[in-house]
UniProtKB/TrEMBL annotation:
UniProt binding sites for S-adenosyl-L-methionine: L82, G104, I125, S133
A GO term from the CC aspect: cytoplasm
Keywords: Cytoplasm, Methyltransferase, S-adenosyl-L-methionine, Transferase, tRNA processing
Source lineage: Bacteria, Bacillati, Actinomycetota, Coriobacteriia, Coriobacteriales
Species name: Collinsella acetigenes
Catalysed transformations (reactions): cytidine(34) in tRNA + S-adenosyl-L-methionine = 2'-O-methylcytidine(34) in tRNA + S-adenosyl-L-homocysteine + H(+); 5-carboxymethylaminomethyluridine(34) in tRNA(Leu) + S-adenosyl-L-methionine = 5-carboxymethylaminomethyl-2'-O-methyluridine(34) in tRNA(Leu) + S-adenosyl-L-homocysteine + H(+)
Pfam families tied to this protein: SpoU_methylase (PF00588)
Stored InterPro entries: Alpha/beta_knot_MTases (IPR029028), SpoU_MeTrfase (IPR001537), TrmL (IPR016914), tRNA_m1G_MTases_N (IPR029026)
Protein name as catalogued: Putative tRNA (cytidine(34)-2'-O)-methyltransferase
UniProt subcellular location: Cytoplasm
UniProt cross-references to HAMAP family, sorted A to Z: tRNA_methyltr_TrmL (MF_01885)
UniProt cross-references to Gene3D superfamilies, sorted A to Z: 3.40.1280.10
Domain tRNA/rRNA methyltransferase SpoU type: 2-134
GO molecular function, one term: RNA binding
Amino acid sequence: MFNVVLYQPEIPANTGNIGRTCVVTGARLHLIGPLGFSLDHKTVHRAGLGYWENLDVCTYEGWEDFLRQNELARDDERLHLLTKKARRTYAQSSYRDGDYLVFGSESNGIPEELLACSPERCERIPMLPDEASLANAEAWEAHEQALGHSEPDHEAILQQDICGNFIDPTSYRISALNLSNSAAIVLYEALRQTDFPGM
């Protein structure tokens, strides 16, 4: 059984969709708080449809609580930290039954201090650059600037890159997969590698 871990998820529909994927694949869902919604939220249940009642789900107060309850070390080889700041892709990784696929919050991802503690556990999903995937990339940038969001401070990000495992921050993208798509992509690769029935 694989474990899908959501670190401080913010959007209930994403968690509901991921919960449904966990049920149909036999995976356990771990939710690390604080959550951006209540698990009683109707959107979670609507996205999870009739599957939610069959979901094997565990909740935790925070990262340390999650590690302690699952008897995991910070750099445990069973952890796969999915981030855009990794050199290795998820497809270059090897998965085994019982592994933990960790995804960060929709707005902030996995905190860099957690990534820096376990650089060899970091993996990414490759995506095309904005100019290849978005015809309106300039409009996105203009919209962000109009909202007062400045360009990321690449110099500061480089200084935080103490583990040497992050990709070039100038390649950060506007476009990205949503959380539920990302979780499904990586989970199905892990299942494929472990001979999930029907693959």
